[in-house]
Amino acid sequence: MDPVKLYQGLRQYLRVSYDLSEVEGSEIDVGEDFAVKFRLTNDAPSPIGDSNPIVVFKNPRIVVSATDFATPLAEGEPTAPITVAFDKDNLRPGEFTFAEVKMRAIANMGGLEDTFRHEQVAKAKIYADLDLELFFQMRYSKAVFEEIHAKR
Questions:
Q1: What is the DSSP string of 105-139?
Q2: Do 134 and 58 touch, CB atoms closer than 8 A?
Q3: 18: helix, coil or strand?
Q4: Are 38 and 123 spatial neighbours (Cβ–Cβ below 8 Å)?
Q5: Which of its termini does the chain have fewer beta carbons within 10 Å around, N or C?
Q6: Phi, psi of 144, rounded to the nearest 5 degrees
């Protein structure tokens, strides 16, 4: 099996989405602090039966870098990049976990372009380790049938 295809196939099971929180009012203003709450989901198929490997991601973490418009905060001070661990250490198929990153708005796009586009407020890269022991654990089920006689 091609290791690149295997890697790409496994990577597709990591799904990330986000919501903004701690926003004062309905808009983010320059100089304002806010938070980005990332949700990471393991979309691997459930290991029903013996035919699917068990895909568990361990130690999920996110590295968030600054952009021209916002920077991550650590203890209230700008820092970039910042690495934050997700809430769960192990992410089994169908499970999800969260990580929250505090941010500060540092600039506005301005001009006509600001009317049609949103500012990029973070660059995020997800890391997770594949649980190799579970992935390569071989499972085989066998039903055992034998006649059981009534006592005479």
A1: E-----TTHHHH-PPP--EEEEEEEE-HHHHT---
A2: no
A3: strand
A4: no
A5: C
A6: -110, 125
C-beta separation of 86 from 62 below 8 A? yes
Tokens in use for 121? Answer: 């407020």
Which tokens hold the place of 137? Answer: 């654990």
Per the structure block, which two tokens stand in for 117? 């586009």
Q: Who's near 132: CB < 8 A, 6+ residues apart?
A: none
Copy the structure tokens of residue 73: 């905060």
